[in-house]
């Protein structure tokens, strides 16, 4: 693929220019790395790199997440122009980008995924060879890596004691916002640099309605009572903004601490799974608990396709999958139901489901997605016990009793046009328990 704005970057970036490298932090307020870049330097140039290594791995050239990023960058550009500077958006391999420029310093925020760690190590090596400092900071979580540990300095692998230690450690310091606005005068003065279009980077624009970048306290206050009912607006829908950093985790934690402890727990789960990924990187490809890698999955491709398409004959499962396919969003309760159904009812490897969610979810985050799927499969660090098999009918009775959510996404339910169940629940439960026992007995 052709690189865009690389030549412009080479002309603009000199040895007096400091780069702030935007990644999962697409905002200028309360941004850790941007704060330190502006506080410690003058002539700070904001840069975003459309990473060709990541983009070329995507299957869908109309991927809504790329559209969301592009829209967020346009918003950033408008804000930055008010301060007499510009966002430089480049489309290239980040390693090649940093080989081609020599700034005064580079500032960015931590990323904990294996590709990001490898990329950042390569970038750091290139910059250090040029005598350029590569500075990174914690920004997308409240506590990272080894900040919340057991008393013996080992990482937690069970959520409840982790969350108790997390809350005990939390104080005003960790919730305090970074006052970036104090140093906006230190942006590099330059004319607006045109962003590459979606077409320029090989993607298509699509009509997509993204959740507002608004913290609705009225929803958060009722979250513990309404969060499990997919037919109502009982969740914040801020997950995509958390994923790409268009809102600050510290701001959300401030609100959560005041308004609803159950919603605060959801933010703690994010930190927990990010910590697990950091300490146990093998979870990207294998079960956290090695015994679960002995499970003999059926992996029937036709049944998997029916699950993907929302044609299993189980209405709550099909509604969830159709919502995901249409919108890129799925209610959290329904995520648990569809994941349990795939792994337990169909005996299909959790990695298949994880990969499908990775393609479709607007808020896809490796650590949380992996953690959620391994929880459902029973193979994770703090998982549902393997013998817990969600009954879709009972889940419907509890959480969508009037079938309002189901009828929205599966209007043909109850008619001859709706498929019969792909598998009998009782049979599937007996089969999966037998398969799991056999694997774990090894």
UniProtKB/TrEMBL annotation:
Its cofactor is (6R)-5,10-methylene-5,6,7,8-tetrahydrofolate; FAD. Pfam families: DNA_photolyase, FAD_binding_7. FAD binds at residues 223, 235-239, 263, 266-273, 363-365. One of its GO terms (molecular function) is DNA binding. Residues 16-142 form the Photolyase/cryptochrome alpha/beta domain. Belongs to the DNA photolyase family. Binds 1 FAD per subunit. Transmembrane segments: none annotated. The record marks 297, 350, 373 as: Electron transfer via tryptophanyl radical. PROSITE patterns: DNA_PHOTOLYASES_1_1, DNA_PHOTOLYASES_1_2, PHR_CRY_ALPHA_BETA. This is Deoxyribodipyrimidine photo-lyase. SUPFAM superfamilies: Cryptochrome/photolyase FAD-binding domain, Cryptochrome/photolyase, N-terminal domain. GO terms for biological process: nucleobase-containing compound metabolic process; response to light stimulus; response to stress. Keywords: Chromophore, FAD, Flavoprotein, Lyase. The lineage of its organism: Bacteria, Pseudomonadati, Bacteroidota, Cytophagia, Cytophagales. The keyword Lyase applies. Coiled coil: none annotated.
């Amino acid at each position: 693929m052709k690189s865009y704005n690389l030549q412009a970057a080479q002309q603009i970036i000199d040895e007096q220019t400091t780069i702030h490298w935007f990644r999962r932090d697409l905002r200028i307020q309360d941004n850790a790395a941007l704060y330190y870049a502006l506080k410690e330097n003058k002539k700070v140039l904001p840069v975003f790199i459309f990473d060709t290594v990541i983009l070329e791995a995507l299957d869908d050239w109309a991927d809504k997440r790329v559209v969301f990023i592009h829209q967020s960058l346009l918003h950033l550009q408008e804000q930055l122009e008010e301060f007499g500077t510009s966002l430089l958006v480049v489309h290239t391999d980040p390693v090649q980008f940093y080989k081609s420029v020599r700034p005064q310093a580079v500032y960015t925020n931590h990323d904990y995924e294996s590709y990001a760690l490898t990329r950042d190590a390569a970038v750091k090596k290139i910059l250090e060879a040029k005598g350029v400092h590569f500075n990174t900071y914690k920004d997308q979580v409240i506590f990272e890596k080894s900040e919340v540990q057991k008393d013996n300095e080992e990482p937690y692998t069970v959520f409840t004691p982790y969350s108790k230690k997390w809350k005990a450690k939390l104080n005003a310091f960790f919730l305090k916002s970074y006052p970036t606005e104090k140093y906006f005068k230190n942006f590099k003065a330059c004319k607006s640099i045109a962003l590459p279009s979606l077409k320029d980077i090989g993607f298509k624009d699509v009509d997509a309605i993204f959740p507002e970048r608004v913290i609705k306290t009225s929803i958060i206050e009722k979250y513990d009572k309404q969060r499990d009912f997919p037919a109502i607006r009982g969740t914040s829908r801020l997950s995509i903004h958390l994923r790409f950093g268009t809102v600050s985790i510290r701001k959300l934690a401030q609100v959560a601490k005041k308004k609803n402890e159950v919603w605060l727990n959801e933010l703690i789960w994010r930190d927990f799974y990010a910590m697990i990924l950091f300490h146990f990187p093998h979870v990207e490809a294998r079960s956290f608990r090695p015994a679960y890698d002995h499970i003999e999955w059926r992996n029937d491709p036709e049944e998997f396709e029916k699950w993907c398409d929302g044609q299993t004959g189980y209405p709550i499962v099909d509604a969830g999958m159709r919502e995901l396919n249409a919108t890129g969003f799925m209610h959290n309760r329904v995520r648990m139901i569809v994941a349990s159904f795939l792994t337990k009812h169909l005996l299909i490897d959790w990695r298949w489901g994880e990969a499908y969610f990775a393609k479709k979810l607007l808020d896809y985050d490796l650590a949380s997605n992996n953690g959620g799927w391994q929880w459902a499969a029973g193979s994770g660090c703090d998982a549902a016990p393997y013998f817990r098999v969600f009954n879709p009918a009972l889940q419907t009775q509890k959480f969508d009793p009037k079938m309002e959510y189901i009828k929205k996404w599966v209007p043909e339910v109850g008619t001859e046009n709706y498929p019969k169940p792909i598998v009998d629940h009782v049979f599937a439960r007996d089969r999966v328990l037998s398969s799991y026992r056999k694997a774990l007995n090894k």
